[in-house]
Write a structure and sequence with these properties.
Elements: H1 17-32, H2 36-45, H3 54-71, H4 74-102, H5 111-119, H6 124-148, H7 154-182, H8 189-201, H9 206-230, H10 242-276, H11 285-293, H12 298-322, H13 335-341
């Protein structure tokens, strides 16, 4: 018997090429064309992927990389470190004036008084511009740190950024004051504080704003005292061992505490001015010193604050050498490396 021939496919004849390729093309289509809904969900669930991830952060990454590269330059670090030395010189002069007030002398114990005293010495004009450049450089350093710094947690990151931003504003303001005096301005610390308070009180809701500013200054004073007592400055310095390290630590404790007390009194004066609606009650460091001197045992308190400010100035000089400048220099860890570390 001969072999039975297979029956032809239903419909007769061979299948067309399109019919033969249909299963293959369907499989390729299912593999190569993703579901748009799945892609959108993945972009939301997995940060760093999809259009919400690197595409959105690409421009920001290039800017932050440029900032980190600029901060990594040795010259930039040296100039920023010199800003601590400039701050130390100013605080040492302020402390000397405060001690003079304690023993019955006079003088403006604020930043403006210190800068005016510097301008009166030989080559003081040049020194003022050097201090200006160093203080502004340090302010810019802390400002970029506020942008680039990253902590292990979101709350820690924002706390570090606020701290860096506050220091940036302070150093930039002091550097701007030094520049103004170098250009010929002769501001008086107390008169400037009272004029500024008068302008704020004239605004709608001005008393509340002035009170909030005074409260903020008072909180900053409490923070300085806490840093000194708890030795929190060790987090931003690499303090050596031995007698040098113990000396720097003692200077930091005394200096931070004294500056915190002075800031607390300044904040109190601002709050009193806001409550009484009297700008004459406001004042800067000079007003705080005179307010302390009017208290029982005031000259002794003022003398201690002055000595503490001198100690803070010496401490800032040590910070020039031992300050940690790494905040914001290194790139933040990726989510994958953070997860592996955890």
């Amino acid at each position: 018997m001969s072999a039975r021939r297979p029956l032809p496919p239903t419909g007769g004849g061979r299948r067309s090429a399109s019919e033969a390729d249909t299963p293959v093309t369907d499989a390729v289509s299912r593999r190569s064309v993703p579901d748009l809904r799945t892609t959108a969900v993945d972009a939301v669930k997995r940060p760093g992927r999809g259009w919400g991830g690197p595409y959105r952060r690409g421009m920001d990454t290039s800017a932050t990389d440029a900032l980190r590269e600029a901060r990594a330059q040795p010259v930039a670090r040296r100039i920023a470190r010199a800003g601590y030395a400039a701050d130390g010189i100013v605080h040492a002069l302020m402390g000397a004036v405060v001690i003079a007030v304690a023993v019955g002398g006079g003088g403006d114990s604020g930043h403006s008084g210190a800068f005016r005293a510097i301008g009166q010495v030989p080559l003081g004009f040049v020194l003022l511009w050097v201090l200006t450049g160093c203080l502004l450089a340090l302010g810019l350093w802390h400002g970029t740190s506020a942008v680039l710094v990253h902590g292990p947690r979101r709350r820690t990151t924002w706390g570090m950024r606020l701290s860096e931003a506050g220091q940036a504003v302070a150093f930039l303001a002091v550097g701007g004051l030094a520049a103004a005096i170098a250009l010929g301005a002769r501001p008086q610390g107390e008169r400037t504080a009272q004029d500024a308070s008068r302008g704020i009180l004239s605004l709608p809701g001005g008393p509340w704003l002035l009170g909030a500013i005074g409260l903020g200054v008072g909180i900053a004073g409490i923070a300085f005292v806490a840093i000194g007592v708890r030795r929190g400055f060790r987090k931003v310095m690499t303090i050596p061992d031995g007698a040098i390290g113990r000396t720097i630590t003692a200077l930091g404790i005394v200096g931070y505490t004294a500056k915190g007390v002075a800031l607390g009194v300044v904040g109190t004066l601002l709050v009193v001015a806001a409550v009484k609606l009297d700008p004459g009650e406001a004042g800067g460091l000079d007003g705080a010193v005179h307010a302390l001197r009017a208290m029982p045992a005031g000259p002794y308190l003022v003398g201690l604050v002055g000595a503490g400010l001198v100690a803070y100035g010496v401490f800032c000089g040590a910070r020039t050498r031992y300050a940690r400048m790494e905040r914001g220099t290194a790139a933040p860890p990726s989510r994958r490396s953070a997860a592996v570390t955890a």
